[in-house]
Amino acid sequence: MPKVIQYLIAFTVIVFALMYFARPMVSWYLEPSGSVTPLNERQGLDYQSLDNQSLKLWAAHPRKEHGALVTPQDITPIDQNVAEADVFFIHPTTYFGPGGWNSNPLEDGFDKQGIGHVISTAASTFNGCCAIYAPHYRQAHLNAFVTDDRQQGTDALDFAYEDVEDAFEAFLAQRKLGTPFFIASHSQGTLLGARLIRNKVANTPLEQELVAAYLIGYWLPPDTFTRIIPDFPLCESFDDTGCTISYDTYDKTGPGRDNEFSLPHWYPEGWEWRADKPGSCINPLSWKQDQEFVSSDANLGGVGWQGSFSLINLITNNNTGYVYQTLADPVTGVTSAQCGEFNMLMVDTQEGTAFDNPGKGEDKSLHPKDWNLFYMNIRQNITDRLASYKVKNAD
Q1: Is residue 27 part of a domain?
Q2: Number of neighbours of residue 386 by Cβ within 10 angstroms
Q3: Is residue 144 part of a domain?
Q4: Which of 21, 86, 108, 143 lies 20 to 30 Å from 2 when distance is taken between CA atoms?
C-alpha cells in the first residue's frame, strides 16, 4: 500500500478518534481534583484591609482603577468618590479549568479573564450612579452545578458563599453609612446573592437602604420569594423599589431550558436539587412580570463582548491579558423579549452576532449575554429606580 494512502488512513482515524473522544477527554481533564476544603481548615480572605494586597481581592472597588468604569463612547462614568449610591456586584462562574473545587482569587488564570469581561460589560451598567464594589471570591467550579457528587458541589458553593459574605461585611464597613445601595449578580453570583440578602439584609436596617436587587441569570423558582427573600418580591414596575429583578435568557428558536435537568437551590432549610419548578421572569424591555411580547423597538441598546475566548486558553488556564479600554457602541433594537413558558425570557436569535453564545447547547441558552443584550435598558432602569427611591425616602 502506498505510503500516502497509509498516511491518509492514519489521519482519518485520528480525526474520527478526536471527534468521538476529545470531549470526554477534555471533560475528564477539567474534572475538579480532590475534595472541598473542610470548614475547620479554611483560611478567610482579608477584604477589610485596604492595602495593595487586599485590594487585589476586589475586581472593582472605589479605591482602585477597574474595568467597571469603562463606557460606550460619549458616556461618562460618575466620579466614584461622589457617587450617590453603591452597588455590591457578585460575578458569575468563570472557573472552568483544571484545579480544585474552588478557585484561587490571587492567581491570574483564565477565570480572571472571564471576570474581566463580566465586570466591564455588566457591572459597568452601574457606573452612572454608583460606587462599584465587586469582590473576587473562591468561586465554585462549573462542575459544582453538573456533578453527580452533589455533596461536593454544594460544599464548594458553601465555600464560595462564605467569601461573598465576608466581602459584603467589608463593603458595609467601608461605605458611607446610610447610603442607598443595590445588590447585583449573575449566574453563580445570583444563587449566592439571594442567600446573602436573606442572611445579611432581611430583617435589618439595611432593608430600608437596598434600592433593588438585580439577581439575573440563574433559575430562581417562585418559592425563592416565599422561602428565602419574602421581603424582596419580584418588581412590579420600572420604578418599583425594595424588590428583585430576575430573568434567564434563551433564543426563541430553541426549546428553552431542559426541565429535566436539576440545578442546586439554597434554602434556609438546606440545599435542594430541582428541575420541575418554573423560574422567575421580569421582562427587561418593560420591567413587568407579565407574558406580553415587547418588540425590539423598546431595546435601547445591547453591548457585546470584545476580545475572544478559546478552548486552548481554558485548558491551559491562560489569561491572555485582554483589558477593556472602552465598550462597543450600543446596538439599538438588538432583540425583542417575552417571558414565555416556564418563565423563561425568550429573545430573537443571535446566530452570528456579538450576542451569540458559542457554547450553547440544544436549549440555545444565551446565558453569558443576559446583561449584555439589555445593557442600555438596565443602565437606564438603575437610574430610574434610584430616582424613585430618593423620592420615596425624601426627608
Answers
A1: no
A2: 23
A3: yes
A4: 21
341 is written with which cell numbers? Answer: 413558558
What distance in Å separates the CA atoms of residue 153 and residue 36, rounded to the nearest whole number?
Answer: 9
In 3D, which of 284, 280, 292 has the Cα closest to residue 342? 280
Closest CA to 353 of 306, 297, 304: 304
* Residue 30 forms part of a structural domain: no
CA 282 to chain CA centroid, Å, is 16
The amino acid occupying position 368 is P
Residue 14 lies in a domain: no
Q: How many domains does the chain have?
A: 1
Residue 184's domain comprises 44-392
Tell me which amino acid residue 274 is. Answer: R
The reply to whether the predicted model has a pTM over 0.85 is yes
Average pLDDT over residues 127-137: 98
Q: Do residues 55 and 62 touch, judged by C-beta distance below 8 A?
A: no
- End-to-end CA gap in the chain: 92
DSSP 8-class letter at 293: -
**Grid cell for residue 285:** 424591555
Reported as a single tens digit per residue, the pLDDT across 271-330 is 999 998 999 999 999 999 999 999 999 999 999 998 877 778 887 888 998 999 999 999
C-alpha distances out from residue 13 to 18, 21, 48, 276, 321, Å: 9, 12, 57, 42, 37
d(CA 293, CA 347): 10
Dist. CA 119–CA 52, nearest whole Å: 20
Where do the H-state alpha helices sit in the chain?
A: 3-30, 52-55, 110-121, 150-174, 188-196, 311-315, 375-392
Closest by CA position to 119, among listed 61, 158, 165, 190: 61
* Segments of 206-341 assigned E as strands: 210-216, 243-245, 249-251, 263-267, 270-274, 337-339
Give the contacts of 119 (CB within 8 A, at least 6 positions apart). Answer: 59, 60, 66, 67, 68, 89, 91, 134
